[in-house]
């Protein structure tokens, strides 16, 4: 029975905890903003009131009106905060709690053979399938799996739907959705030194130049590009020349700025920033988990037609494609497998070699073949034939 590698298992789970945490952080910030602005207004009003009272110039009716105003404000604030808590705060906290409880199961599992681990791992596979479906644009499939397996709180459908919505807008050459997202995540983007916002602003500017609206382009540049001059002065200088350069230019640097392919780059930059903020890997979790297994099995033989093995996952064309990315495994003690039966060759099922060609198959396979062909065996690879008794035993040392 193998003990569970808890740390290794948890390595995959960072985004699982991070995504709802990021959501909650945003909800908290929004409550805080509301609180700050309303309380500041109340403080101003009350200072004003006490100032007037001290100066002796207060009218009771005005004072009552001002106090009513303050009460109204605070009541409004209370309603707003409780709405926010009910519609977003509480559900997000529930998601966080459920996810942490789900992870806690792993810490108490005695070993990987325990039934509670296999149930846990089944759910994990479902989660990875949903993650894979969401990343490959199969949102309906993702929703269906999540619903059928009742794992809606354990997967991030809303996040991916949002990412997809913004990517779709960029693909239609609209920056506003992505810019709104940048402003929502301003601090976090600054922390990871993302230049996404600048790239988006630059694109909007380029589009104004493409549409030959120089006046608007200048205003736009002053408003949105100049703020970046500490870090992007060179680029800002370069694009300012676009005011005088037509989109039909054949001059390399300006042609590249007008290139529509920049929109595709924006889509990828946005996706990368969104994934990074949520600590999501750029590849589906399912692929990453498969890589680990494939790396432990991958051999050069998996990629040669004549040495493929029916029972080896890496020999499968689809998984083999995925395994191209991972290094070959290093076996200190190799296991030799018969290419006919797929069974392991050892002292109970000796490897037998054809005398001329040296190709090796298991004793079981050769016996079976000999029994069907009056004692004659044929090598499927070289086509050479001989009596079963002419095969040579191969000893593994
Ligand atoms: Zn293989």
UniProtKB/TrEMBL annotation:
InterPro entries in UniProt: CRA_dom, CTLH/CRA, CTLH_C, Fyv10_fam, ZF_RING_GID
UniProt family annotation: Belongs to the FYV10 family.
Name the record gives this protein: Unplaced genomic scaffold PLICRscaffold_18, whole genome shotgun sequence
Keyword Zinc-finger applies: yes
GO BP, one annotated term: proteasome-mediated ubiquitin-dependent protein catabolic process
Recorded GO MF terms: ubiquitin protein ligase activity; zinc ion binding
Domain of life, source organism: Eukaryota
Claim: ATP-binding is one of the keywords in the record: no
Domain RING-Gid-type stretches: 312-382
Coiled-coil intervals, chain numbering: none
Domain CTLH: 160-216
Cellular component GO terms held in the UniProt record: cytoplasm; GID complex; nucleus
Compartments where found: Cytoplasm
Keywords: Cytoplasm, Metal-binding, Zinc, Zinc-finger
Chain intervals annotated as zinc finger (RING-Gid-type): 312-382
